[in-house]
Every structure is written in C-alpha cells, then in structure tokens.
Design goal:
Structural class: mainly alpha
Strand order of the largest sheet: 2-1-3
Largest sheet: 3 strands, mixed
Order of helices and strands: EHHHEHHHEHHHHH
Number of helices: 11
Shape: globular
Distance between the termini: 68 Å
Length: about 325
C-alpha cells in the first residue's frame, strides 16, 4: 500500500469492554463502582499521608506516590470509557488517543519503578533497621521518586512519538477499550517493527528488572523474618509479605501476558482485553487495601482525621 497518498484518520473507534450480550449495564456499573473504590481508597491514602506528619516516612511517601499513580492511571481511560457507553458513541479523536496512550504508559511504567522502591525500603527497614533512617532520608526518597517518574516518561516518550507519526489508512477500529499500543499498531500502516522492538525492549528491561529486584528483596526479607525470635512478629511479617507478593504476582503476571510478546500484527487481542481488566481495574483497587489501609498506623491516622472532622462540625 502507498502510505504517502494516505489520508490520515481523524478519529478511532474503540471496541469497548469484552462483555456478555445482555449484561452490558451490569458490566459498566461494576466498572463505575470499581473506579469509585479506586478514587476513594487511593485518595484517602494520599490525603492522610499529606495531613498526618507521623506518616511522612519513606514507606508512606512511596505508597502515596503509588496511590497517586493509580488514580491517574484509571482516570486516563475509565471516564472516557463510561462516557462512550452512556452516549452510545465509541469514537475517540486521533490526538486524544495519542494523549491517552502516552499518559496510560507513563503511569503504567512508573508503577514498576515505585514498586521497586517500596521493596527497597522494606528491605532496608527489615534487614538493616538501625541504618534505615540514615539510608532512606527524605532527600534520598525524593530523588528516588523523581527518578521513577522521569524514568517512566523517558521510557515511553520516543515510542509514543513514533506511533503518533504512523499512517492509519486501512482501519480506524481499535480492538480494545482504551488506546493500547498493541491494538493501535495493529491498524497502523508502514513498518512498525522498530516500534515493536523498542516496546518489547522497554517491557523486558523495566518489567523484568523490576520483578527480579523485587523478588530478591523479598527473599532477603523472608530470610530475616525467619530469624526473628518472636513467633507473633514472624506471623505478622509473613502476612504482610504474602499479601504484597499476591498483588505483585497479579500485576506482573498480567503484564507479562499482555505486553511481553515479540509480534503484534498477528495478535487478535481478544484474550488480552480480558486480562487487561485485571491489570487496569482490579489491581488499582487492591493496592491501597493491601499496602496501606490494613496498616495500623494508617488506620489510626484515618480515625483521627475523621474524629477531627466530626468534632469540627
């Protein structure tokens, strides 16, 4: 096909969520409920960490960044998804799609860096408790978080720019419920092999290195826990680590399935959409409950904040 004479499409059509005929309302009501839970849970974490100076510690600083990421990540596409369903129009303008793709992957890639920082902080706090305050200072934590966000931005910006400059002539139907790189490249014209290779490289470097570092950190954490003299402390630490590892397993497992594939043009993305639901809807809701709200310090801060609000009425 001669892409030089191509008239670029001005909008795409999103296929929407994978659903069962007759259950569309229930599915989209569930999405709306999950979005509200995500906003409430993660918004609560960000608020209490900002307002309570007792929570201004490295762990909660990293967790508040994770919560902010979850809010941004879901807000990138869920409001548009719900609006499309209510209006009955699944169209999204070309540049809106590019912006959605950019922010979706900015938040997505940054998540792996932040999870790595959380595992690093837990490793230092549990395995080297006497040095934790001198290693994880506020200045160091701020620089690490800046590096995570800048790393996320520079990991995806070149790929997004190349995707935005591809010709889209043969089809404008994206087989997904948001602008994901795979379905977008599938309908693109021109040679996409360089973009696919770059995306695969970024996924391998970022996701695999983050997973390896996180698993190594938790391995040493578990070794330290086993040496604890108190059985009650062991059980509490095991419970916390187990819940963290469950979320990590869900996150990395779904991302491996969706993004670590060497070819895109021959993919149908039917199964990918279903797996993406786990990564995009469920995990952002689980994160605040697993990492923060079960924590006694966070619960005490929430109770105090609510008490002050009630007494001030």
């Amino acid at each position: 096909m001669n892409v030089t004479n191509c008239t670029r499409t001005t909008e795409f059509i999103l296929a929407g969520l994978p659903g069962i005929v007759g259950m569309e309302r229930m599915i989209y009501a569930s999405v709306f409920l999950l979005y509200l839970l995500c906003l409430m849970g993660n918004g609560l974490i960000v608020t209490v960490v900002i307002m309570d100076r007792h929570l201004q510690k490295p762990m909660y600083f990293f967790l508040s960044n994770l919560s902010f990421k979850d809010i941004g990540h879901t807000t990138t596409f869920i409001p548009k998804l719900l609006l499309n369903y209510l209006s009955g129009n699944n169209a999204i303008c070309f540049y809106c799609c590019v912006i959605q793709l950019c922010f979706y992957f900015l938040f997505g890639v940054t998540e792996f860096f932040i999870i790595t920082l959380i595992s690093l902080d837990r490793y230092v706090a549990i395995c080297h408790p006497l040095r934790h305050a001198t290693i994880m200072t506020s200045g160091v934590c701020l620089q690490l978080v800046k590096a995570a966000w800048f790393g996320g931005f520079f990991s995806i910006i070149f790929q997004v720019v190349m995707i935005a400059n591809l010709p889209y002539c043969t089809s404008n139907i994206i087989n997904h419920f948001y602008c994901d790189v795979g379905p977008v490249l599938k309908i693109a014209g021109g040679d996409t092999r360089l973009i696919e290779a770059l995306g695969f490289l970024v996924a391998v470097v970022v996701v695999v290195s983050s997973l390896v570092f996180t698993l190594i950190s938790y391995f040493f954490i578990l070794c330290t826990i086993l040496r604890m003299p108190s059985t009650s402390r062991q059980q509490k630490a095991f419970s916390t680590c187990a819940s963290h590892l469950v979320v990590v397993s869900l996150l990395y497992g779904s991302v491996f399935f969706v993004y670590l594939r060497p070819t895109i043009k021959n993919s149908s993305f039917t199964m990918t959409k279903s797996v993406s639901v786990l990564y995009t809807f469920i995990i952002p809701v689980l994160n605040p409950f697993i990492y923060s709200i079960r924590n006694n310090e966070v619960k005490d801060s929430v109770h105090k904040m609510i008490g002050r609000k009630i007494s001030g009425l």
